[in-house]
Write a structure and sequence with these properties.
The protein has 247 residues and is an all-alpha fold. It has 11 helices and no strands. The longest helix is centred in the N-terminal third of the chain and has 46 residues. It is globular and about 60 Å long.
Amino acid sequence: MLQLSTIGRRSGDFHWTGTNEVCIVSGSFSQLVASTLLVVGALFPIVNPLGGAPIFLMLTRGLSDHGRAKLARTIAINGLALMVVSIFIGTHILGFFGISLPVVQLSGGLVVTATGWALLRHSDDDDSTMDAKRPCNEANYMRQAFYPLTLPLTVGPGSISAAITVGANRTEGSEWRWPLVVGLLIGAILIAISIYLSYRFAERIAAALGEAAMNIFIRLSSFILVCIGVQISWNGLSALLRTVLAR
């Protein structure tokens, strides 16, 4: 009887430990999925790679299919680096330089607005003249891979401020546990993949839409870019005004 009791207690202890391990694994997986969905849900609508594809195509006219694929891959990698840096050390960088998030939003929004306005006023005649004067090689476009094609057109101040907010808004007292870190990384990678696919096949998307529809889409995307820039600037300005009025 003593042996049976001992075996029973050991069996019970083992069963309790196994249940606890299952709960830990389930909790870690839930945190990983939640972190991934948080990044995708917060950044994908702002990055909007499908909406940026027509603008990318317009700015890379005359580039070969291989060159466009290489450029799309570079932009996706640059965007991934910006998102990861913003999520994990963005608050520390801003704190080191003494820059507040509203200032980033205000200044970055002005850059986005100016870029969208320039694209909105851009005409096809000007584009054909530029293509005639500019030699068509990958080096000319690769120099623009980071600015302006990655920053601010793809991962702009809105995306950066959202990524910094995602990285800063952890549960109180929580550390950088592996499910959180891996989930944030997976979310950023998924957005980078969507950027690559949208830009890589931008020409096919344009062919499916047709020239007239694509032209309308480009103008509409440029106008939306202006609106996004104004909204980002207003968010930053409002936050700054609230701090002034609160004094």
